[in-house]
Design a protein that fits this description.
The chain is of the alpha/beta class. It folds into 4 domains: about 300 residues, UDP-N-acetylmuramoyl-L-alanine:D-glutamate ligase (3-Layer(aba) Sandwich), CATH 3.40.1190; about 130 residues, Mur ligase, C-terminal domain (Protein-Tyrosine Phosphatase, Chain A); about 130 residues, no CATH class; about 260 residues, Dihydropteroate synthase-like (TIM Barrel), CATH 3.20.20.20. About 40% of the residues lie in helices and about 15% in strands. The strands form 4 sheets. An 11-stranded mixed beta sheet has the order 4-3-2-5-1-6-7-8-9-10-11, sandwiched between helices. An 8-stranded parallel beta sheet has the order 27-26-25-24-23-22-29-28. Helix 13 links the parallel strand 15 and strand 16. The longest helix is centred in the N-terminal third of the chain and has 20 residues. The protein is globular. The chain starts with a helix and ends in a 9-residue tail after the last helix.
């Protein structure tokens, strides 16, 4: 079964209307032999905030060392986002396996008029995956209500109700008290229900749950107990939270105090309501297991949750928030009020079953609004929303059919000191967010085998693969689009003589994989056509991204219709590291930056490894004395190294973490001594405190093998305007023999790195200062490491320089080289990486690898690269 067939099967179940009760889900799970039986579950219900709370709890538990499943809805771009294990989306192969196991049963039930719904099936898939992965704890976001929700098929070990507002009244009840009673049925038998509910709904929760742990601000008070006079209230909440306001444009300070523990930290989710959600997550974590204050502090701060008051830019201020009901819009308005801006621009798209007028009334009155229509059948007509904004007093109102066009219109109108808010629905936010997250990947196609692989990886139907593989031997670009965009793009490229293959999954509300095939001339004409007719299909961003990727892949499109040379042109190193406009204004970028200071802007650079540790896998103990380390650095410079990477903690398999003071004592004196050498200095560390001290001592670059697991790291890099290497890693130090399932290791790693890069960018770094590293050996097999080497050029889709770190690693056992015998294989891989477009190679043996890089570059362009000059 192909993935698009499995996904289509699931989406087709949307034709069945939701129905109350857990029986259908329980029967489906019984058919699957109850794979979830040995998993501990946490249920989180609520009108608003349940997704954010689930994410915060999941991050805290993972920080404490638990393996954690997370089930949330809806998804932003990909069905698989709903089901995660330790942060990783369920693989496409697993979705296929599940549907294969359940399809016959579901079809038979449908024939009897009792088919599981889409949500019930997705819930069963989540529980099935969590059982297969043997997670310690699974956190479930409740769909609707609590008593009859599909997730209530489990017996939770802990649960929460975050908030209660009037919603789904036709199902849950006509009053907040009735809705609260329904949601409170997620309460476990022997553990108090945790809740942020106050007032009369809290009493309704108590009627159902019995024992309750309340969470709220220090000024909150519970309702009087029965028999107590109205003037005497019970004490404030059991868990008190205080919202300290924003500490920067993306984080806020919170403190949480309970009986026997307290914590102060920062969270990347803004607003006082998110402080309450953090308190709920902390209280749940305390019920579940062994969680320290340090785990709470770091876990809560690492709980990034896309589309929930997400600040994408500061000049102008651009905020994405999926507020979808009046209560959420009220809290959004309160948080937005903490920012200073001149004019407010709003992009608004909502579902037709929402109370649009109440939502609009809860928001600040915008100076300009663009209503729009996310690609969903349930979306409200933008003209209807425009009328509601007109009644609310909005000054300037426009209608755009596509979310991307609405966003482009608003961005064009917004000035540096204005605010642009995208809201009304998570579906609207998802389509807008693609401006910052979509990656157009150039595919290197050498023969028919490569062509077929490129098509099959995009879930193109088998018949189309056979028909089109011969057309995919020129330039090939893989991208992800909305269905309406993909249809227009395919028609335009066909008119130009090119080809376009779309995945079998073609739905208005889902992303579509598209593989574009043609000559450079055809691609140039396609870009020009898209730019000329960008509206009303939201193709402005598509044209811009496509032009960027073609320039990186084959040199700038020169406009005269001539094809450029095949292969990777080195001009992309000087011009191809685009920034998507998160932290600095376009005017600032036009004025130039410090990109030219990096050696990899015009060629592949060599980063030499200097391990000042006693236990690193290749050279541990050789340079742990300062004088020995300095001498080693000097010899690297003599051999023409470009960057010296100083590391004070081994990440080899099984290595023990080094105390922070010891790591500082190892690296800072060395960096201080070598800072004036004719090479840039990098510090190889997972800890922000070590990075900060190293940069103060003279380092230029942070090499973070954990991929920003320390939430302070990105801010340290931004404060120093340093280079930042962001590596994809499953574990650091490496966990031996850990089996990670990838559908396509390159695509999956790019997908994961795209969010990590965006985090760094939102902290204030431009993409030319963010280097991506696919993480050879960190959660990849030898075969997967070689696949990453062969396709290293695809990582330029992220718009960042690319580092390849392979020196003496276990991948070379695959070619018969044991530890201590891998120099020749390392040098060969260096030459291949340089030829395929790596910007930096990280190696132990500098002279040999410098020679390999120079040989590879000279072979590609002998006129340009003359190393004797």
């Amino acid at each position: 079964m192909e993935y698009h067939e499995a996904a289509d099967f699931c989406f087709d179940l949307r034709r069945f209307r939701p129905k109350p009760g857990t029986e259908s889900t329980a029967r489906l799970l019984a058919h699957l032999e109850d794979p979830h039986a040995d998993v501990d579950f946490v249920q989180i219900a609520g009108s608003n905030g349940k997704g954010s709370t689930a994410r915060m709890l999941e991050r805290v538990l993972r920080e404490a060392g638990y393996s954690v499943g997370l089930y949330t809805s809806p998804h932003l771009e990909d069905l698989r986002e709903r089901i995660r294990v330790d942060g990783r989306k369920i693989p496409r192969a697993a979705v296929c396996d599940f549907v294969e196991s359940a399809r016959e049963y579901i079809t038979d039930r449908a024939a009897d008029g009792e088919s599981p719904t889409f949500f019930e099936t997705m819930t069963a898939m989540a529980l099935w995956q969590f059982g297969r992965e043997d997670v310690d704890v699974a956190v479930l976001e409740v769909g609707i209500g609590g008593k009859y929700d599909a997730t209530s098929v489990v017996d939770p070990t802990a649960s929460a109700v975050t908030s209660v507002t009037l919603e789904h009244t036709g199902i849950l009840g006509d009053t907040e008290a009735e809705i609260a009673r329904d949601k409170a049925h997620v309460s476990p038998d022997d553990v108090p229900l945790v809740t942020g509910v106050t007032g009369a709904p809290l009493e309704a929760v108590r009627d159902v749950a019995g024992e309750v742990v309340t969470v709220g601000t220090a000024t909150d008070e519970t309702e009087p107990n029965e028999g107590v006079s109205a003037g005497d209230s019970t004490p404030g909440p059991d868990v008190r939270v205080a919202y300290g306001g924003r500490t920067n444009h993306t984080e806020a300070a919170v403190s949480i105090v309970a009986d026997g523990w307290d914590v102060e930290t920062r969270i990347p989710l803004l607003g006082e309501h998110q402080a309450v959600n953090a308190g709920i997550a902390a209280a749940l974590a305390a019920q579940i297991g062994d969680v320290s204050d340090a785990h709470l502090e770091r876990g809560l701060r690492s709980a990034f949750w896309p589309g929930r008051f997400e600040v994408m830019n500061t000049e102008p201020l651009v905020v994405l928030d999926g507020a979808h009901n009046p209560g959420a819009c009220e809290r959004l308005a309160e948080t937005l009020d903490t920012y200073d801006y001149d004019r407010l621009h709003v992009v608004f798209g909502a579902m037709h079953d929402k109370d649009h007028r109440a939502m609009i009334d809860a928001l600040p009155t915008p100076d300009a609004v663009v209503t729009t229509d996310p690609s969903l059948d349930r979306a409200e007509d933008p003209a209807v929303l425009a009328a509601a904004f007109d009644d609310a007093g909005a000054v300037s109102i426009r209608v755009e059919a596509a979310v991307q066009d609405a966003l482009a219109t608003a961005l064009d109108a917004a000035e540096r000191d204005d605010c642009l808010l995208v809201t009304g629905s998570l579906f609207t936010v998802a389509e807008a967010r693609s401006r910052w997250t979509r990656t157009d990947v150039p595919k290197r196609v050498r023969d028919l085998s490569d062509a077929r692989e490129a098509l099959e990886d995009a879930n193109v139907a088998a018949g189309d693969v056979e028909r089109l593989d011969g057309d995919a031997v020129h330039r090939v670009v893989r991208t992800v689009l909305r269905d309406r965009q993909a249809t227009v793009l395919k028609a335009e490229l066909l008119r130009l003589g090119g080809e376009c293959a779309l995945s079998g999954l073609e739905r208005d509300d889902e992303a579509v994989d598209a593989v574009l095939m043609g000559t450079l001339t055809q691609f140039e004409a396609l870009v020009e056509r898209l730019e000329a007719r960008a509206r009303p299909h939201g193709l402005t961003d598509v044209a811009r991204e496509l032009r960027d990727v073609l320039e990186r892949d084959a040199g700038a499109i020169d406009g005269d219709g001539a094809d450029g040379a095949d292969g990777v042109d080195d001009s992309r190193r000087a011009t191809g590291t685009r920034s998507r406009g998160v932290s600095r204004s376009d005017a600032d970028r036009a004025a130039g930056g410090s990109e030219a200071a990096f050696p990899w802007t015009d060629r592949t650079a060599v980063m030499g490894i200097l391990n000042v540790t006693p236990d690193s896998f290749h050279d541990g103990g050789r340079y742990d004395a300062v004088e020995d380390a300095v001498a080693r650095a000097e010899s690297m410079v003599e051999a023409d190294v470009d960057v010296i990477d100083v590391g004070g903690e081994s990440t080899r398999p099984g290595a023990a973490p080094v105390p922070i003071d010891e790591e500082l004592d190892r690296v800072v004196p060395v960096i201080d001594r070598i800072a004036d050498l004719d090479a840039q200095i990098s510090v190889d560390t997972r800890r922000a405190a070590v990075a900060d001290a190293a940069l103060e001592a003279g380092a230029d670059i942070i090499n973070d093998v954990s991929g920003l697991e320390d939430p302070e790291m990105r801010f340290v890099a931004a404060e120093h305007d340093a280079g930042l290497v962001v590596m994809h890693s499953i574990d650091a130090p490496v966990v031996p023999d850990r089996d990670i399932q990838y559908d396509d290791v390159v695509a999956d790693v790019i997908d994961r790195l795209s969010e990590r890069v965006l985090l760094a960018e939102k902290a204030g770094l431009d993409r030319e200062r963010i280097i991506v590293d696919p993480g050879i050996g960190f959660g990849k097999s030898s075969a997967e490491s070689f696949e990453l080497l062969d396709r290293i050029d695809e990582f330029h889709a992220l718009g960042c320089p690319v580092l390849f770190g392979h020196s003496h690693k276990s991948m070379f056992a695959r070619v018969g080289r044991d530890h201590g015998e891998r120099l020749e294989a390392t040098v060969a891989a260096t030459a291949l990486a340089a030829d395929r477009g790596a910007d930096i190679v990280r190696v132990h043996d500098v002279p040999e690898n410098v020679a390999a890089v120079r040989t590879a570059l000279s072979a590609r362009d002998p006129e340009r690269f003359d190393w004797t000059a």
